């Protein structure tokens, strides 16, 4: 939200909502604190309508104390009115939900001020370091400041020297006064932040992962703490949809356990990718899914066994689910199971099996669910949902595509389409994500070119820009469903596919959910699909 109002005027407006003293000019600091503390509930609703949303009493009290500190440090009234407006209060970076207390942009430098109540110096330093991670991509340098009136701690982080310095009140006032500040609204500021700068994959950004150049959400940190700290629980489950940060969380947990000198084995639900092979060179013990039975037979060798992408276990192949449960029950080893029941790629990989496994873990140990999506923006997520199921019984809201994150290319013939795909694969920074073919029987998908990476080779990975081919193997079919709430019949269009050993719709879903930023559809000789996809977007 925008702060156009300067700090002093804003505090005056807050206090003036108390009718008893709205006309007084001789209000003492203690009276202000008392008003804000005792009448927060009645003051805030009116204040929120103006765009200023203090979360609680502590937050508004800390702001008031900060304003009074600036006065004590010598900031004159004229300087308050001229130099403390145009801050963003509580600005949140879209998609990743990172919040900043006070943020203002400038020609010479930006200012980020964190206002802390009862805290510690270490907590202040940690917060400043995190803010640097999120703001260092901006073209203008940022001054990172933390103010805690309650413990009289005023710190600045200097990234170029990787050090923290204590600031005097005069120095803080100077930083505010000497900034040649710029005025932006929230929408303009949103455009400064590129989500891909903050997304780290342990497979696709190995160096960043190894160098700890990432941060987890508070919820993820709670999960790490519960799993890595001593506990009588020996089984943990982590469940989440694509883009919720499962892989980063699981590999971070592994790294933390290794730092505690624990022996950890990871079983990955596919063949190993290049990133995992690089991690193995740095001490990680990672096995492909085909080795799971051997790992379980030797569970005694490890303190922890992590099964990542566990939804890809198959009961028909050596009773993998049964043997996993037996190993959990019979060994002293602790198990961490990570899964997403919808991300299956084989007709023998049953979502019901992974759901039963998760329920078993919930009964025997502790489970966690990841819900916040970071990798794909809300519009992209909604588009992918609509692509697979289009409601015909109501008018849909078109997907906003003003930034052209969804691109469509149509080719009448396969030769020109394949040539384009091959050229983009070789000569661009786009990743072509293709489909895994049946090795033994002829299928309709065999006409698709073999360019790019296959669905089975990219499990758990993510890419900035992906190209996904579609042809006559994909089509829509109308279906009538019964609304559970009203009992009404409703018509929907479901995306269906030709028969294939590996279900094409599951592979398409896997490929689409690998993107961080953009999807390009290369549609070959299928005008029906072409028109349907175009019809979901407000621009293309």
TrEMBL record:
<protein>
    <submittedName>
        <fullName>ATP-binding protein</fullName>
    </submittedName>
</protein>
<dbReference type="GO" id="GO:0005524">
    <property type="term" value="F:ATP binding"/>
</dbReference>
<keyword id="KW-0547">Nucleotide-binding</keyword>
<keyword id="KW-0614">Plasmid</keyword>
<dbReference type="InterPro" id="IPR027417">
    <property type="entry name" value="P-loop_NTPase"/>
</dbReference>
<dbReference type="Pfam" id="PF09848">
    <property type="entry name" value="SLFN-g3_helicase"/>
</dbReference>
<feature type="domain" description="Schlafen group 3-like DNA/RNA helicase">
    <location>
        <begin position="233"/>
        <end position="426"/>
    </location>
</feature>
<dbReference type="InterPro" id="IPR018647">
    <property type="entry name" value="SLFN_3-like_DNA/RNA_helicase"/>
</dbReference>
<keyword id="KW-0067">ATP-binding</keyword>
